[in-house]
């Protein structure tokens, strides 16, 4: 794939519209990881309007493309993601939270019919307590999922499934109710 073909692909990816609560923004991709790269950031809101709206999760999706591939990728494309969301104290204390987070990642891709190879990543739980002048703040807990995978695609347009899978992951981590199969979400494209 040359630069013109990659730009056509990126233009198609820019048209992807997630569910209403997920707000995508194109951001500068990392440099020097691959010949071609593209990145989105996402903020997930609670779906309320005005002063009641609150960010409940955020993340970043990076698509890398190296013609001829890289040895560790097992392909010419690589998807890299970071997702973080607040979790309640009970969930944070669950010893299986990392395994559950990893299963969310794999299931989100499977639910969007993504074929993948070489998945890798980490699931981290972060807990903080406030002291001194910050002690009136509530203790905070988060889950962070960092993952990468090689999308196995016959047609580069199939990469849209992988962005959709990532949006499913960030929605799951944020605790949004799944959209039932066969139901389309009514949403206007929300971008920043």
Radius of gyration: 18 Å
**What value does the average pLDDT take?**
86
Number of domains: 1
Low-confidence stretches: 187-191
- Quick one: how many beta strands? 6
H/E topology pattern: HEEEEHHEEH
The strands making up the biggest β-sheet line up spatially as 1-2-3-4-6-5
Q: Determine the fraction of residues in helical runs and give it as a percent range.
A: 25-40%
Largest sheet: 6 strands, antiparallel
What's the shape?
A: elongated
Total helices: the number is: 4
How large a portion of the residues is in β-strands, by DSSP E? 35-45%
By secondary-structure content and strand pairing, the structural class works out as: alpha+beta
CA distance, first residue to last residue: 29 Å
Q: What can you see in these coordinates?
A:
The protein has 192 residues and is an alpha+beta fold. The chain has one domain. 25% of the residues lie in helices and 36% in strands. The protein has helices at residues 3-14, 89-93, 97-111, 159-174, and strands spanning 22-27, 36-45, 55-70, 75-86, 116-128, 140-151. Strands 1-2-3-4-6-5 form a 6-stranded antiparallel sheet, with helices on one face. α3 (97-111) runs antiparallel to α4. It is elongated, with a radius of gyration of 18 Å.
What's the layout of helices and strands?
Blueprint: H1 3-14, E1 22-27, E2 36-45, E3 55-70, E4 75-86, H2 89-93, H3 97-111, E5 116-128, E6 140-151, H4 159-174
Offer a few descriptive terms.
alpha+beta, 6 strands, 4 helices, 192 residues
